[in-house]
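Supplementary notes (optional reading)

For those who missed the lab, this is the record we used. Protein: PRC-barrel domain containing protein. Length: 123 residues.
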Amino acid sequence: MPTDSIWSFPADSGYVEGQDPTGFAVHASDGAIGRVDRQAGHFGMRHLVVDTGVWVFGRSALVPVGVVRRVDPAARTVTLGCTRAEVKAAPRFRTDSETMDRAYLAAVGDYYHRLTAGEAPRS
């Protein structure tokens, strides 16, 4: 998978262009992680900001849309192709300004790209 494809919904995900997944429940491959707070795409790096609630002590996570495996508008769910632990281990999302920080987005994209390529992420 090319690195830039981590920022695009997979063609077979069920995502329809223009669809707003805000409020959809987000599930990793091994369980629920939260709800979509918003979708953004600064610098062509489309991602979801996921409110993880109490699961990760009230913090949010930033997930590139290329990690999405399925969007089900009827059930209002987004299913990711990674585990809860992998989301938790991603570069930490601290402030909204990071959605405008190319270096931070690149680090997140690199982390998830290695996951989808079957490589162990570097710390």
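If you only remember one thing from this example: The domain at 3-116 is CATH 2.30.30.240 (SH3 type barrels.).
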